[in-house]
Amino acid sequence: MSIFRQAFDWITVRDYVAAKNRAAIETAARYSRGNIAVQNGWFLDKTGLDLLSREGDKAISRLKQKASNK
Predict the structure, then answer these.
(1) Does residue 56 contact residue 47 with C-beta atoms inside 8 Å?
(2) Backbone angles phi, psi at 40, to 5 degrees
(3) Is the pLDDT of residue 39 over 70?
(4) Is the pLDDT of residue 31 over 80?
(5) From CA 55, how far away is CA 61, in angstroms rounded?
(6) Is 34 left (phi over 0), alpha (psi -120 to 50) or beta?
(7) Among 18, 24, 49, 65, which is 20 to 30 Å from 8 by CA?
(8) C-beta of residue 17 within 8 angstroms of C-beta of residue 26
(9) Would the pLDDT of 43 be above 80?
(10) Closest CA to 28 of 19, 14, 20, 38
């Protein structure tokens, strides 16, 4: 890479953004190593996680109700 390109990237903060993106990808790769679900793209986004949480709350409420009826 030329010195002019490096200077331009530094002035426009492109080098920072590129380094940040590289770090995010490397971190995700490091933490997902061996996790087949993540590597295959099977993960929950915020919407899915919120839905799962609400369903779990309902299930716990039903279990508590049934346990108190006995």
Answers:
(1) no
(2) -90, 0
(3) no
(4) no
(5) 10
(6) left
(7) 24
(8) no
(9) no
(10) 38
